[in-house]
Amino acid sequence: MVIFSVYVVNKAGGLIYQYDNYVPRAEAEKTFSYPFDLVLKHHDEKVVVSFGQRDGIRVGHALLSINGVDVIGKNTAEGKDILEYLKDPANFPVSIRFGRARLSSNEKLMLASMFHSLFAIGSQLSPEVGSSGIEMLETDMFKIHCFQTLTGIKFILLADPRQSGVDVLLRKIYEIYSDFALKNPFYSLEMPIRCELFDQNLKSALEIAEKAGNFGAGS
Amino acid sequence: MTVHNLYIFDRNGSCLYYNEWNRKKQAGISKDEEFKLMYGMLFSIRSFVSKISPLDMKDGFLSFQTSKYRLHYYETPSGLRFVMNTDLSVTNARETLQHIYSNLYVEYIVKNPVCVLGQTLDSELFSNRLDAFIRALPYYSPRAA
Fold first, then answer.
1. pLDDT tens for residues A104-138?
2. What 3-state DSSP class applies to B97?
3. Chain A residue numbers touching B55 (CB-CB < 8 A)
4. In which domain of life is the source organism classified (chain B) (predicted)?
């Protein structure tokens, strides 16, 4: 029963705060011999699996390290292109670690803005009068909850699908935002939140919610 | 407890079928634009979900809800997308959508030699059976207009 991350989006759709509470690292390190049996491709400055699945390595996983040394973008740590490196049989057997690529700050910014727009479209396409935007989006692995305040700030929470009490938690985060960000004289509205007390109180609120969620499910 | 409307899209984004039962508010744009917007929104949601997901996903995006309605989504492996808007009391319509695909779409459209796949579904039998099926759903109740 986990809360994965929190995003706060301002009125214009820009990300002003992001916190990753729990990032599950699903990685697999395997030894490969020539010929290499997965098909790789370049995607967004990373090397990802485009075809082939084996032992926990799935399509979409990024290549994280070769022989224990982390790769840098499309090249190995020495600067050689990875795809060329893997075409050379002299380099085998090689031990490669694959896993879900961690999101960069830029990607998080883009995703937050994307959600801001999807939220609005959800309201426009509503078959009922007076609908809000997307308040909860469900997938098989997680749920996204969104609370929009009267001033247009959105608090977005990524949590386990079975997590309960998320509405209360979102209101609590709003309270923490108004206490430690808005009342901070050095904080400007709609700007990225850099207030230590906000971070601390947010972390403890998430811990409490996770523990409470566990009790609810166990009893 | 009610079903508002149903869209069926093919893998290229064209809307094959649309019907509404209890829709109170139109989108304010033409039907064609609404279909494109709906398809575009779903395409974006799917790509958003696959990027932001902390774990590898099996089924992907299932549904979303707002304060007034809930949108259920089901995609077949062939890229056919079923989208149903219901009210908030319906929590899981995935099986309903799967039933619509396997028992109605496959039976009356795919197995129909006259129907060309990829064009709008104009089989009257399909429309009637689908309408009857929706009205027979336990969570469907026609509201007074």
1. 899 999 999 999 999 999 999 999 988 999 999 99
2. helix
3. 24, 26, 100, 141-142
4. Eukaryota
Pick from B27, B53, B71: CB nearest A139: B53
B1 touching A (Cβ < 8 Å): no
Residue A182 · residue A203 · CB < 8 Å: no
Quick check: A128 contacting B, CB < 8 Å? yes
Sheet containing strand A15-20, strands side by side:
A15-20, A3-9, A154-159, A143-148, A136-139, B61-65, B70-75, B81-86, B3-9, B15-20
Helices B31-52 and A105-124 cross at an angle (nearest 10°) of 150
* pLDDT for A219 beyond 70: no
Compute the count of residue pairs across chains A and B with CB atoms less than 8 Å apart: 117
B18/A contact by beta carbon, under 8 A = no
Closest Cα to residue A179, out of A210, A201, A150? A201
CA angle, corner A150, sides to A148 and A156, nearest 5?
15
ipTM of the complex: 0.88
d(CA A19, CA A13): 17
Q: What does the block give as tokens for B47?
A: 């790509």
B88, B19 contact by CB (below 8 A): no
